[in-house]
Write a structure and sequence with these properties.
Layout lengths: L11 H8 L3 H8 L7 H14 L5 H8 L4 E6 L3 H6 L1 H16 L3 E6 L6 H9 L5 E5 L7 H6 L5 E4 L12 E4 L1 H14 L5 E5 L5 H13 L8 E3 L4 H14 L5 E4 L2 H13 L9 E6 L2 H4 L7 E4 L2 H17 L9 E3 L2 E3 L5
Parallel strand pairs: 1-2, 1-3, 3-4, 4-5, 5-11, 6-7, 6-8, 8-9, 9-10
Antiparallel strand pairs: 10-12
């Protein structure tokens, strides 16, 4: 039986000898300390690469007072997280930026208010350096809880009013994007434009409904129907709208999944898109928008970039705790016209 031999891990002393510097200098470079001249930093990094040195995380944490991990909190049930491509894209952007900063992602989703205590204990227990949270709802206290935790945080999307005053967040121009969508339908000659809204307890849905009303100031209230951002809710909402308003000639859905559900219902009723009813969504998730037949006209928001920017704002808070909180960022949106309008 062959015995497996283990190659000893390179030590700080070996890196120091290879680089021709002191052990303390290597420690400062490896742990992100200051006060080391760039030529010495380059020597240490070269020695680290040549020897394959990997820092001991436990020892590193003692020096830096950091865990090297960030909590990503999604305020949705597990089935929503894995069934809606929005979450996958958002987390992908976050994950890539965390990896670029040598940080680990700890994913937490919150099924309901009963789990708030678990989240609070985790954040206050020194397990992570910071928190990123998105898909917040106004009818729970999660945003308030995170804002009063012991860790720096950034929200994805504008937090509920009054829950975390001054909290840093990254969002897109939901209201402006909705205005562009409805203005496009008006310019195309549509006069009976319905809106399938998202949940009224989420700021993005409220802002998109406000953009709809910005264009159709005296709109018919019977042309409004709520959904919950799922495809099935879009299909049901479209059926309800057709029952109430059989003469409608366009619909703006607050996300692409609901728009795809609306398309399905319209086609099942024998209506032509866009000849009889034009459809516009919101998100521009390519696998949804381009995969729908006909392909969706929609409002594009850069979901992955939102995730990346959340991490960058958090890094600013972590690296410069003495400075005031990071400013919030609102990204532009753009109408992408395809065959559904």
């Amino acid at each position: 039986m062959l015995e497996q031999t283990m190659t000893p891990r390179p030590t700080l002393e070996e890196v120091a000898a290879r680089a021709g510097v002191s052990r303390a200098t290597v420690s400062r470079v490896v742990n992100g300390g200051s006060g080391v001249r760039q030529p010495l930093i380059d020597k240490v990094r070269k020695a680290v690469d040549e020897l394959g040195y990997v820092p001991n995380q436990a020892a590193r944490s003692l020096v830096t007072q950091r865990t090297g991990a960030v909590a990503v909190i999604i305020a949705e049930p597990e089935f929503r997280v894995f069934s809606d491509p929005f979450f996958e894209r958002h987390v992908r952007g976050i994950s890539r930026e965390l990896s670029a900063n040598d940080l680990q992602l700890v994913l937490l989703w919150v099924e309901g208010e009963s789990e708030h205590g678990r989240i609070a204990r985790y954040l206050s227990g020194g397990h992570v350096d910071g928190a990123l949270a998105f898909s917040l709802h106004s009818d729970d206290q999660l945003a308030h809880l995170i804002a009063h935790s012991r860790v720096p945080y950034v929200f994805g999307g504008r937090p509920p009013v009054g829950s975390a005053p001054g909290a840093p967040y990254v969002d897109c121009d939901n209201r402006g994007g909705a205005r562009a969508a409805v203005s496009h339908l008006v310019s195309a000659g549509r006069s009976r434009i319905a809106h399938i809204a998202g949940p009224s307890d989420q700021a993005s849905a409220v802002d998109r409904a406000a953009g709809y009303h910005d264009v159709l100031i005296d709109g018919d209230p019977t042309l409004l129907q709520p959904g919950d951002f799922t495809e099935e809710s879009g299909a049901r909402a479209m059926a309800a709208l057709l029952y109430r308003c059989p003469g409608l000639d366009a619909v703006f859905a607050a996300n692409d999944l609901m728009a795809r559900g609306a398309v399905r219902t319209l086609l099942e009723r024998g209506l032509r898109i866009p000849e009889d009813v034009a459809v516009v969504g919101f998100d521009d998730m390519e696998d949804v928008a381009s995969g729908t037949v006909p392909a969706l006209t929609t409002v594009r928001q850069d979901i992955e970039d939102m995730g990346r920017l959340m991490v960058r704002l958090l890094m600013r808070l972590l690296d410069h705790p003495e400075r005031p909180g990071a400013d919030s960022v609102i990204l532009p949106t753009a109408l992408v016209q395809r065959q559904s309008s």
